[in-house]
Amino acid sequence: MNLLDYPRWPLLARESILNVPIDIRSTRVNVEGKVIDYGSDIDSVVITGMGGSGVVGDIVNDLCWFWDCRVPIIVSKNMRLPRRLSRPLVLAISYSGNTVETIMSAEEALSRGYPVIGITTGGKLSAILSSKGVPVILIPKASAPRYGLPSLLYPTLIVLERFGVVSVTNELERGIVGMEKALRAVDEASKLAKELVNSIPVIWVPESRRGVGIRFKNDLNENAKYFSIVSVIPEGAHNDIAAITTSQAGLRHVVISGSNDFESKYLDAVVDVISSFGVKPLIVRLDGSTPLESEMYGVTFLGIATLALAHLLNVEPVSTLPINKLKEELDRRGLFTV
Questions:
Q1: How do the domains of the chain map onto residue ranges?
Q2: Quick one: pLDDT at residue 62?
Q3: DSSP line for 278-319
Q4: Residue 225: which H helix or E strand, with range?
Q5: CA-based diameter of the chain, in Å?
Q6: CA 24 – CA 21 distance, rounded (Å)
């Protein structure tokens, strides 16, 4: 099985943070007559991005259930920003730099006078922002956006620290330890993959690990070309769990939980109820002593499992033909002006 860029993840994480300018808060730009001062106080952070880039916002949201994040994190996966914003910092994350939804959101943010920082390998996003004097953090390249996750996440964490949102310095290396642990658990990930063959995975995950569940679903979609379902607890315990009483043919339930998650006892109760109806879920424990370590263990381990599943199914994991065709179709219809 080809692990693609996963063995490089620890190195990608370390390399990418070196590209964050130390003096980024001293930036002042004039856009359309508006002076944008990056040293001003902020009251929220908007993380805008799609797909493998957009999941960075989901992971940061997870971490803020455990960390003392000073301001709300708003995840925007759309062509526009939320309307009611006051003094946000906008992080425009696009691995390719050509994600039109992210470019449109970044341009809207600048037109509103918000400080924007781009995180990308280049492309149109880099060109547009750089031409306006807006900071752009360039990151190392990988085989595809989803395989470059540490390159996108780690600069984001550094930026959040520079803006006083959260203190992450002591956590960064623990996140890399989580990746390294997962890379030593390839055989276990392959066993999980075998359990998922010829099934539709139903992923049960606590709210504080929503990002891990979403990332797992996305990797199943893109790597293994599998449909899957994410049920977030406790909300899913008020609706999704009712479907356990019907036929479970073709479904395979996977429960994701961290040992120190505050929803652990609640999730254990959900597992017991599911099991009482004759459904035996697979349990994935997030190994780690800190929030970032267990989060990165989870996304790495589960990502490797989806590569193993693609290998078992003889599916080529990197290509995403329908996504490419959709982009071409949207461009043909003139829906985006970027």
A1: 6-167, 174-313
A2: 97
A3: T---EEEEE--SSHHHHHHHHHHHHHHHHHHHHHHHT--SS-
A4: none
A5: 65
A6: 5
The reply to whether the predicted model has a pTM over 0.85 is yes
Angle (nearest 5°) at CA 56 between 286 and 157: 90
Dump pLDDT digits (tens) for 264-321.
999 999 999 999 999 999 999 999 999 999 999 999 999 999 999 999 999 999 999 9
Which CATH code, of 3.40.309.10, 3.40.1280.10, 3.40.50.10490, 3.90.800.10, is assigned to 174-313?
Answer: 3.40.50.10490
- Tracing tokens 């679903």 back to the chain, one arrives at 217
Q: How confident is the model at residue 170 (pLDDT cuts 50, 70, 90)?
A: confident
- Catalytic annotation, residues: 222, 238, 327
Rounded to the nearest 10 degrees, what angle do helices 291-313 and 169-183 cross at?
30
> For residue 118, which of 126, 110, 108 has the smallest C-alpha distance?
126
DSSP 205-218: EEGGGHHHHHHHHH
The topology under which CATH files domain 6-167 is: Rossmann fold (3.40.50)
- Please give the single-letter amino acid code of residue 5: D
- Say how many CA atoms lie within 13 Å of 250 toward its Cβ: 7
Same fold, 6-167 and 174-313: yes
Nearest Cα residue to 102 out of 53, 48, 58, 155: 48
Residue at 100: amino acid letter = V
Tens of pLDDT, residues 156-165: 999 999 999 9
